[in-house]
Amino acid sequence: MMQPFRPDTLLRKGLKLSHLRLLAALAETEQLTLAAAAIGISQPAASRLVAEIEAIIGGAVHERTGRGIGLTAMGRALSLRAQRVRLELDDAARDMAEIMTGGMGHVRIGTVTGAALDRVLPALQREQARHPAVTVEVEVAASDQLCDHLLAGRLDFVLGRMPEGPQAQMLTYAPLDGEPLALVARHGHPVLTGAPTLEAALSYDWLLPGEPSLMTRTVLASLQARGLPAPRRRVSTTSFMLTLALLQQTDAIAVMAQAIAQQFSTGPGAALATLPVPLGIEVEPYGMISRERVALTPAAQRLADQISAGHGPQIP
Questions:
Q1: FRET partner for 308 with CA separation of 20 to 30 A, picked from 39, 46, 217, 234?
Q2: Residue (of 202, 200, 220, 222) closest to 211 by Cα position
Q3: Which CATH code for domain 90-177+285-309?
C-alpha cells in the first residue's frame, strides 16, 4: 500500500522547479512532445524529467491511451498544482515589477458583454485618471471561455458566471448584478409605428447567440412560459459588429443586455432604438470570479475593487 504523502514529501524527495515547469506544461498540453517544446527543452530531456518525477511520486505521470498519451490521475493532479505554482511565480514577478516601477502595471480582465459597459468601462475611466501608467487588457466573451483563460493564467479576474464541472472548484465567485435584457432595432423599424408589442416583434427575425448560450436559453424559456412562440427565424451570431450591421441594414431585432442597448440607443446620433416593449427578462446574475487562493497584483486588485464598488463618477 502506498504511504500517504506528508506536506513536505515531494520537496524532501527532490522535486525541483524544472519538474514543476514540465508538469505545468503537461497540464496545458497533455502531450510530452508539446510540453517539452513549450518550456524549450528536448523530448529526451523531458523524458528524463518525467522519469525523475515518477521516481519521486512512486507512480506514473502519463500513460498510453487509445488516442495517444494522456495524464494519469496522479499526473493530472500534480500537473494542475504545478500550473498553479507557475502562475503564482508569474504573478510574483508582476508584483515586484509594479513595486519597482511605482504605480505601473498591466491588468487583464475578462468580462461578459453587459458588465463590460455597466461596470468595467466606468472603472477603467477612474483608473486611467488616477494611474495613467497602468495598462489594461479587456477580453469580452462567454463565461466558460473566460474562465478557461483565467485558469490558464491569461486573465487576472473575470466578470461572468461560474462554469459547471470540476474547474469550478478552482475558482471563487462573488455575485454582483443581474443582467436585464432589451430589444433593439434600427430607427424607422416598422414595429416602432403605432404601439409596439412583443407579439409584433416576434414576426421579425431575431438576432441571438447560439442555442447553447445562457441568453438564448433564457429568452426562449421566457417566451414559452408566456405562451408565446419562438421568433419566426433566429440568426445566431456572437459577433457584435455583425449584429450592429444587420440591425442597421435589415428589419432584424436583437436581444441585448440593457446596458448595451442604452449605450447605442440614447443621445444625439444614436445608431439604434430600444423597443418600448416590456420584455421583463433578466439573465442570471454575473459576479467577480478569480482563482482560488490566488492573490491579485496590486494594480489588478485596485481595479477589481473599483469594479465591485459599482458605478460612480470619474474621479480626477
A1: 217
A2: 220
A3: 3.40.190.10
C-alpha cell at position 279: 420584455
What CA dihedral angle connects 236, 241, 244 and 249, to 10 degrees?
-90
Give the predicted TM-score (pTM) of the model.
Answer: 0.65
Exposed/middle/buried for residue 192 (C-beta within 10 Å: 0-12, 13-18, 19+): middle
Is CATH 1.20.5.440 the classification given to domain 9-88? Answer: no
Is residue 26 within 8 Å of residue 75, measured between CB atoms? yes
Report CA-CA distances (Å) from 32 to 21, 45, 110.
12, 11, 30
Blockwise average pLDDT, block size 10, the chain, 316 residues: 57 81 83 86 89 86 69 83 81 72 79 88 89 89 90 92 84 90 91 85 89 83 90 85 91 90 83 85 90 86 90 40
pLDDT of residue 304: 94
